[in-house]
Amino acid sequence: MTDSPLAGGSRPVTDPNDLTGDAIRGAATDAADRAEAAAAASRVRVREVSGGRELDAVHDLFNLIWQPGPAGAPMTGELLRAFAKSGNYIGGAFDGDELVGACVGFFGAPADEAVHSHIAGVSNAARGRSIGFALKLHQRAWSLERGVSAIHWTFDPLIRRNAYFNLVKLGARPKEYLTNFYGGVHDGINAGDDTDRLHVRWPLLDGPVRAACAGRPAQADAAAGRARGAAVALDRSPQGTPVAGTSGSSTLLVAVPPDIERLRLTAPGEAKEWRAALREVLGTLMAQGARVTGFDRSGWYVLRRPGPDAAATCAERPRTPRLPLTDKEQR
Q: Do 149 and 203 form a contact (C-beta atoms < 8 A)?
């Protein structure tokens, strides 16, 4: 299914450093309009969830999506109730009376200025309707209404569709590579793999984020980058295995496999090769100061090295997305 740009005309530009008075009220109103439009396009209603039975439904939905092992659910009912009671974010997407998607976040340091979005997911039955996008836009509007300037979360950098969703559709940017952040997680998605994550920041009023939320994301073009001299730091072999490359350029490309979740089930050894290779290449580059500036939908992270010689870059241009949005986002 092709995702359509959200409806809406031109909007006033808001200074991202001004989060008080008329500026924040205008930004929050704009964000609420975007969120409502996204929900309507996805044929759902997105709203806060706070009642006991609906919190149980969130718990059940997450269990259905992640299929946890005996070690426990991704979110317990007790924790959901504590989050709701203490004023944190729990959003639900409803198709009629049925909960088909949910997102949970909590306030982080500095107090009341940032939200950490811990987990979000959409049921398999509702895939391909951009419900994940509608949930995140609702979370953004909710946060802006409370004076929050940024939302943080983590995602598995090997999952291509999640990288595209987070970095392109939403305009978030990675800040840190976290090695085996959650330890061993045995569920239907992680399949016992190490839980390496990219920690991303979503500055809610930055220009690229506003454009992405309006349906005009900037997308990296890896092929154009290679033509301009970008180096391939991690490549894919014809057999689909990871191949170490070179880092001899200011602009670097790092590959991921087409479907790591399927690979974990069909070729777990190869999946572990990809985990180790991405950790070594992407993790090392980010630790050395390279910034992830985008993601090509064909499966390439684009990075820029710091320094005055960082002139070559992958061309970025707005274009209509053609891939479905992520339906599962694991912490």
A: yes
Residue identified by tokens 């409803």 is 94
**Which ranges of the chain does DSSP label H, i.e. alpha helix?**
21-41, 52-66, 77-85, 131-145, 160-164, 207-213, 222-227, 260-266, 268-278, 284-287
The predicted-structure confidence for 129-157, as pLDDT tens digits, reads as follows 999 999 999 999 999 999 899 999 999 99
0.70 exceeded by the pTM? Answer: yes
Backbone angles phi, psi at 223, to 5 degrees: -65, -45
- Highest mean pLDDT of the ranges 98-112, 178-192, 203-217: 203-217
* 325 CB-near residues (< 8 Å, 6+ apart): 3, 130, 131, 132, 133, 161, 165, 169
Q: How far, in Å, CA of 257 to CA of 246, rounded?
A: 18
Which residues, 6 or more positions from 208, have their beta carbon under 8 angstroms from its beta carbon?
171, 217, 218
Type of residue found at 135: L
Tell me the one-letter amino acid at 125. A
Q: Give the amino acid at 265.
A: L
CA angle, 273 then 279 then 280, to 5°:
90
Q: How many residues does the chain have?
A: 331
CA distance 70 to 142: 34
Confidence of residue 214 (pLDDT cuts 50, 70, 90): very high
pLDDT at 52: 87
